[in-house]
Amino acid sequence: MRLRSVPLGVAILSLLAIVVTLTASPRSFAALQPSGIPAWLQAHVGEGDGQIAEVVLERAHALYLKKVAAGAVNNPCYFAMDATRPGDLGNGVLGRRYYIICEASQSFRAISSGHGGGRNLKGTVDFSNGRRCARNFGNAMDSELTAGGAYMTREAKTSFKGFYRTGAKRDTAFLRTFIQFDGEGEAANARQRVIGGHAAQVLRGMCLRKNPNSSYADHDGMVPFGKLVDYAGGRSNGCTSWSATDAAQLIAMVKGNPTTLYIYPESRDIAAVASGRSGSGAYWNASCLKDIGRPKFWPRKTLEPIIAQYKKDHPAPPPQPLPICKGS
Q: Is the omega angle on the peptide bond into residue 265 within 30 degrees of 0, that is, cis?
């Protein structure tokens, strides 16, 4: 009997501990539970450049463990983004607010990333964002806004965008890879919105050149040509955009091996900060909060009808064929 009494006592004590914990308030529950974040990673927690805010790390860490436990993720690394931080620090310096975390190898890296630029529907509503800080967030179709929440990286699609000049009369094909994201909750329409990650590069000033020998030539032997523009310090259409170098590394990490991405803030965080309630403990980057005043979340049920009506009132002109390049 003595051999069985010890495990039974331990079981009773454990059960009592669970009951006490579950009946505690949310605040005391959080205090009782260890974060589970290893010490080496805790050393990167902070609000300085290259650091990650505690709430962002805890949510990203929990999301990753949840997906690993469910068998949805085998990737040794996961991602996080803090869209409340500045994207442009001035003088050509970009803010580091996208995080690559590999716990098995004890690797932590912070890099730059763009945020959703939003739109200014002139005469109707302005929910646009500046280059430095984002004030507006949302999940509406065609809003070009960042939506915080839980995501999974999915399939990679590489598309030919055109040619650009890299040297003396040397043209290079621009192939850009896009990693589709699938979201949850308020971000569940990420696929519908075509939200994902890619290099912050685009071709501008497009025209057509004769190149009948190219595998990309159309039936008239013409290929699109433009100027390669890097907008790593700018804004996106709601997608996560990285520098070309970082994009190549990130895409290689998740191509065929999905992982999690947690983007902060969610609408609940925005509401807490916007309310201005003192002592709420809500987090926002202090520098950006000073710039933007109070942030705003635009829910799709509110914004989508406005955008749809604006499109109806301001129909886009019919698409025009690309002009022939001068000097072709």
A: yes
Distance CA 297, CA 274 (A): 9
CATH number at residue 126: 2.40.440.10
In a domain? residue 24 = no
What is the pLDDT averaged over residues 177-206? Answer: 95
Tell me whether residue 249 is in a domain. yes
Supply the pTM of this predicted model. Answer: 0.86
Sorted by sequence, the CB contacts under 8 Å of residue 156 that are 6+ apart come out as 177, 178, 179, 180, 251, 254, 255, 256
Instruction: Report the candidate in 273, 274, 174 with the shortest Cα–Cα distance to residue 228.
Output: 174
Residue position matching structure tokens 């469910």: 70
DSSP state of 94: E
Task: Give residue 2's pLDDT.
Answer: 36
Instruction: Give the SS3 label for residue 136.
Output: strand
Count of domains forming the chain: 1
Note whether residue 323 is domain-resident.
no
Whether residue 185 lies inside any domain: the answer is: yes
Q: Which residues pair with 165 in a beta bridge?
A: 171
Distance between CA atoms of residues 132 and 95, nearest Å: 9
Q: Which two tokens stand for residue 197?
A: 């990650």
The answer to whether the beta carbons of residues 131 and 115 sit under 8 Å apart is no
Amino acid residing at 24 = A
Q: How far is CA 211 from CA 217, 221, 326, in A?
A: 6, 6, 14
pLDDT band (50, 70, 90) for residue 225:
very high
Mean pLDDT of the chain: 87
Our CA angle for 13, 18, 21, nearest 5°, is 125
If one compares 92 and 145, the residue with the highest pLDDT of the two is 145
Q: Do 297 and 114 form a contact (C-beta atoms < 8 A)?
A: no
H helices of 203-299, where? 244-254, 267-275, 286-292
Strands 196-199 and 170-183: antiparallel
Q: What is the pLDDT of residue 237?
A: 81
Domain residue limits at 105 = 38-313
